[in-house]
Amino acid sequence: MWIADQWKDYELLDTSSGEKLERWGKYQLVRPDPQVIWKTDRVLPGWRKPNARYHRSSRGGGEWEFFDLPEQWSIHYRDLTFQLKPFSFKHTGLFPEQAVNWDWMSDKIKTASRGGRQIKVLNLFAYTGGATASCAAAGAAVTHVDASKGMVGWARENARSSGLEDAPIRWIVDDCMKFVERENRRLNHYDGILMDPPSYGRGPKGEIWKIEDTIHDLVKACASLLSDDPIFFLINSYTTGLAPSVLSYLLRLEIQPRFGGNVISDEIGLPVKDTGLVLPCGSSGRWER
Question: Domains in the chain, ordered, with CATH?
């Protein structure tokens, strides 16, 4: 398992009975997590007095209960700064387990850039831009694509907070598949591609995305966007439930025959401070040159 254990401003403090207790900077939140199927004693005081708690509804969705939490605050990872705020569907605007992938991509970019090469990266389903900021900070020119105008605006705010307002980042509000198809027609190419697709979603014009129907076509189309000397291809799966071996299969089917290199997939996770164990948080498939 790849473990995101380099955080200073984030901690997964404890897990029990379908919920997790987290520290985001100086604030403690309780949020639901479907992976937490065990029932252990809740001895940490944060369980009883969090700054906010998200309650799931039996009818679907849920709502926040706030006790002492600002509308927005920031946390840091290495040299990056991210703006957080609670919004619907329990999220804060950041998936901290993805830091293990940020570090991996950053290392690839820095190594490939040592001879003065400008690395171009395409970030699909880019959300609030954690990976975009990390890749840009490592020296890459990044194209950030998400169907939500609000999420792209939030990502730009994160880039500014991290001192990357002048970095070579293209901000695109578009359906990811349609954007990739247009980039292929334009004969544009990228040295690194990453994607974090949802299991289900809609594009800016109502386009329907179902991962089981579309992911293979997207990976195949993205393979044509890779440069002659690419450095990485990353597929992340959080809500989809796809096994790591499925991600390996896709990469070995569409990327490895053309470019060689290595494929490896595994779960990603966060260390739990109270138990010393690791909470699984989805899986990732990685191709590297």
Answer: 2-84 (2.60.40.1180), 96-288 (3.40.50.150)
